[in-house]
Amino acid sequence: MMSAIDGFVTGQGRYVDDIKLPGMMRMYVVRSPYARARILKIEGGLNGHEVRGSMSSVGEGATEGSMELQEPVLSTSTVNYVGQPVAAVFGDNLYEAEDRAETVEVEYEPLKPVISIKEALESEPIHRSAKTNIMSDTWLGKDFEIDAPVVLEDRFVNRRVATNPIETRGIVADYSGDKLTVWISTQSVHSIKEGLCEAMGLQPQKVRVIQTDTGGAFGLKGALYPEYVIAAFAAMKFRKPVKWIETRREHLSASHPGRGAEGRMKLFADRQGKILGLKGEVIVDGGAYSGGMGEFAPGFIGYQLTGPYAIQNAHVRAMSVFTNKPPHGPYRGAGRPEAAFFIERMMDMLADELGIDAAELRLKNATTESFRSPLGMKIDASHDFIAKSIEELEYRKLSREKKAGFACFVLVPATQPGESARIVVKEGKIKVWLGGNTHGQRHDIFVKKLLNEELGVPEDKVELERGDTDMLEAGVGAWGSRSAMMAGTALIMAARKIKDQTEKEFGKYSPELLLANEYDEYHFEKFRESLNSFGANLATVSIDQYGNVNVDECRSYYDVGNALSRESVIGQITGGCLQGIGQALYEEVAYNEDGQLLTSSISDAGVQSALTLPRFVIRIAENRSRLPHGAKGLGESPTIGVPSAVARAIELASGRRIRETPVRPEMIV
Amino acid sequence: MDEVNVRIDVNGVNREEKIEPRTLLVHFLRENLGLTGTHIGCDTSNCGACTVLLDGKAVKSCTVLAVQANGRKVLTIEGLGKGGLHPIQKAFLEKQALQCGYCTPGMIMSAYWLLSENPSPDEEQVKRGISGNLCRCTGYRSIIEAIMLASKEMSAGRTHGRDGR
Lengths: 669, 165
Description:
The complex is a heterodimer of chains A (669) and B (165). Chain A is of the alpha+beta class. Helices cover 29% and strands 26% of the residues of chain A. Chain B has helices at residues 25-32, 87-94, 104-117, 123-129, 141-159; strands at 4-10, 13-19, 51-54, 57-60, 73-75. At the A-B interface, helix 1 and helix 15 of A face helix 1, helix 2, helix 3, helix 4 and helix 5 of B. Chain B: One of its GO terms (molecular function) is metal ion binding.
């Protein structure tokens, strides 16, 4: 039998755009050309006069939010970013649908948009129902006064980055008159179902969401988007299947980008380099609407600002603001890289200020016992890991030969609230469903391995099924470096239940007995704690006379716990490192002062080709976690550590202080 | 819109269809013929997910009109390795040169073209050969290794008188 992965090399993958149903219509979305405008009139197509309601916040970083500040499915009054959907038109094929865009008439009265964080803080609110442009505002930690001999202050920026999976978003919706079935490219069928039910007022038993092969996601595909609701609405209205596939341009202008955060940091230290306190202000560019990561991200960044260091005093203000840009969303790392960049940049500044080696300074501030920061983050003893990473990454040797940027971080995986798994044994085969849906991470590899270990069954008897809300009663999703840990644990627990049943029934257990009988076991493993781990990166760069940076080497040393598959670990790290370099050097979705998108293609957005590869060096530590299979998080580690390491390497090579990503050539020549 | 007739040899089979003249080759392959292994990733001919061979040369089928392929030969991922996996496909599996799989068919078609032009490329030549194909998952390392491996396997195959295809 051909496995799913074999199908990917022969063109037999089944992605959402590959679905063809009888009578299926294509949907084309008419979008706002203005960053901010009043809608004076809208006629034609399926528009907001008919499709009412607003988004519901589901998926990664979901928040309660205030309903009136959430994105409308289709607005009839105002638009707040270029690319915001205003109507949908349909045709038998894509060409016909797009032709019908002309039948939609919208009259706009353009308004002055708010584009930057600075403007947001100074301008009138973009939403009439709000008093200011502040979306969220919280304080973490406790205020303190210290008379420190060294006080350093600076401001850092990570510009907005598009997630840019090679497969964009897409959905097919079909309505039988009784049940809405949705096929979708997603990280979580359960989030999508919950979101559709909430936004459309549908009963859960009337909605089924099925995952198609998913061509990458990187945070993009966990949330609900207006187009999903419109497609579902249209399928129900027209009683015909409806397909919508996002174009790359739509992705760049209307999908939720990540990063887009500013950090104002103030570090208090003694002359020996011991950090005495940290004050900070984190401001996230939340985009036009609240409900989700835009609200969640600032507090999450703030919480991690002490990094792997035992900083006893910390006080941080964490805010997000409304701007006339698409809503902020998670991008691989989702708040973790921002926190690492802000604190690691300060560590390097402090090292330079005091003339202490940057790695030495980190060791000096590491902890030899577990530590709970004033901001709430718990870490294990970090000292030995940092000392080991200096060795494993050959920092001393490389620093002598060439200037090496070194960065450390804490990975805080999204463990909560746990995850689910279902195992069905029938006809000599084992089928598995997981609450989080694989979108390139190869969950099938750890599923086969863990069931082989737990149940003694050959790996070729085990098949990981695609996400399907009719086949798995509840689940969370695949994001935040959680799947191997949380879905893996749920799978083990379900497997153990089945093993117990076999033993009870037959007085003994064997894989043959198991496969000869039928079982069906679902398990939701609740998990309320955090399970953090450490990582470190090292980078070396060359810079030409025009300021073009080339990363020569990118080295990683991460504690991955028990590595369930060495190949997958290396694959995740290599791909993630290139994304980390991308953020550091190339990636950005940029706007002009009118809020018009300046980034017009995937290459403009900075996604790299094979031409700019560094030499990757990968080392892992395997300190088992307390989970039954000993796994730790990994997926986001490279995007957390690499940008800081590259920034430092550039700083050392150019002599210019690096305060933002991406680092453009004009900043260093 | 008035339709026109095209006749295109796709994977060795003559396909005759009536289409709108504005139909892109990628839509012709996917919608008219149901060959969904050729993917669409960017619409701006940057990503290469839609790469196919037109008369033996790699093209991005999102930037070619189907009428331009009239009377010509197209090879898609479905036409590769008839009766089994092509050595490039095998090498991609062996080296785990894919994660989400979406860029894979285009990547393999570019590799196929590269190896037909230059059977023994060095690493730099492989990088240049696939520089028109974007992958967001792998960091390219495993893809380069897979193409180098396929190149070796295929030249060994040629020495032993087996057809590379």
